[in-house]
Amino acid sequence: MAMQAHEIEDLIRAAFPDAKVTITDLAGDGNHWAAEVVDESFRGQNRVQQQRAVYASLKGKMDGPSGDLHALALTTKIPE
């Protein structure tokens, strides 16, 4: 079952309540998404640590071929 943008954003916001979150449907099919997450909590972390934290917030929705979220292109940033 495909996920909706608001569902992805809600999961991310639960872990990063002050983040600026932008979700984009890349293919128009509800299966290929891009997310940009800008949050102060990323300061001092490398890119891999930042992205792992965001993927963890998805609570297994990307796990395996039967996951609800098929593909997510993820960009993480620290606020300027």
Describe the structure.
The chain is α+β, with helices and mostly antiparallel strands. It has one domain: BolA-like (GMP Synthetase, Chain A, domain 3, 2-Layer Sandwich), CATH 3.30.300. The chain contains two helices and three strands, in the order αββαβ. The longest helix is centred in the first third of the chain and has 11 residues.
Search tags:
80 residues; GMP Synthetase, Chain A, domain 3; three-stranded mixed β-sheet; 25% strand; globular
CATH-derived architecture: 2-Layer Sandwich
Number of domains: 1
CATH C-level class is Alpha Beta
**Structural class by SSE content:** alpha+beta
Distance between the termini: 37 Å
What order do the helices and strands follow? HEEHE
Annotated CATH topology? GMP Synthetase, Chain A, domain 3
Strand content: 25-35%
User: What is the mean pLDDT?
Assistant: 92
What's the helical proportion of residues? 25-40%
**CATH homologous superfamily label:** BolA-like
- Give the tally of β-strands: 3
The whole-angstrom Rg is 12 Å
What kind of sheet is the major sheet? 3 strands, mixed
Give the overall shape. globular
Strand order of the largest sheet: 1-2-3
Q: Which helices and strands appear, and what pairs or packs with what?
A:
Layout: H1 5-15, E1 20-25, E2 32-38, H2 47-57, E3 71-77
Parallel strand pairs: 2-3
Antiparallel strand pairs: 1-2
Report a brief summary of the structure.
The protein contains two helices and three strands; from the N terminus they run H-E-E-H-E. It is an alpha+beta fold and 80 residues long.
